[in-house]
Design brief:
Layout: H1 3-26, H2 39-52, E1 61-63, E2 69-71, H3 73-93, H4 99-114, H5 118-134, H6 136-145, H7 150-159, H8 171-185, H9 188-195
Antiparallel strand pairs: 1-2
Helix pairs in contact: 2-3, 2-4, 3-4, 4-5, 4-7, 5-7, 7-9, 8-9
């Protein structure tokens, strides 16, 4: 194996380890005295992490005409979509939705850009802004604690303005009303990174 290939493989392994660490940070329980999450919820996070790392090839499969087990991308998407909808719907039906659910939605922003998922990018373009507006403090605290989420989530907030031709005229007011909150929550470089998404 040549040096360039070894370096490339090592870089990919390090990147996967980094993403695992980031995901564990994002899905950490907020209060240690809370009851453990149900196994289904842990499974949800496991599926999302595996999708990010492209490690779901043995979880979602079908048998092709030759009798071989083949990765089923549609099955994976449907599983991710179900997780996404469950967490987004929680904010429409429960005013006390958990910070963990909010982190999961924000992690989908990261996933959608990292994996170039047009479907989830479109979902978030309409869903993320209303969730942010109802949970500003928690949203900004998550960005401050997990800076790797900043670029993706600011990108999806900005996508709200003009998505399907709507809300273009609301952007200026949003920036005026929220700029100071972002500036106070993030450090200088983080704020600059976020606000560049709204150009």
């Amino acid at each position: 194996m040549d040096i360039m290939l070894q370096s490339r493989l090592l870089g990919e392994q390090m990147r996967k380890l980094l993403l695992v660490g980031l995901f564990l940070t994002v899905t950490a329980c907020v209060n240690l005295d809370k009851k453990p999450k149900a196994n289904l919820e842990f499974s949800d996070y496991e599926i999302l992490l595996a999708a990010l790392l492209e490690e779901n090839s043995s979880r979602f499969t079908y048998r092709n005409s030759k009798g071989n087990q083949v990765f089923d991308e549609l099955k994976e998407f449907k599983a991710l979509e179900s997780i996404y909808i469950k967490n987004v719907d929680a904010f429409e039906t429960d005013l006390n939705s958990s910070v963990t659910q909010l982190k999961t939605i924000m992690f989908f922003s990261f996933y959608s850009l990292e994996r170039n998922s047009a479907a989830f990018q479109e979902y978030l373009a309409s869903d993320l802004m209303p969730i942010y507006l109802r949970n500003k403090k928690a949203f900004l605290e998550i960005l401050r604690a997990s800076p790797f989420l900043i670029a993706a989530n600011c990108n999806r907030l900005n996508a709200f303005f003009g998505f399907e031709g709507l809300n273009k005229n609301k952007k200026s007011l949003f920036l005026d009303e929220n700029k100071n909150m972002f500036f106070e929550a993030l450090d200088k470089e983080e704020f600059k990174l976020c606000w560049s998404s709204f150009k």
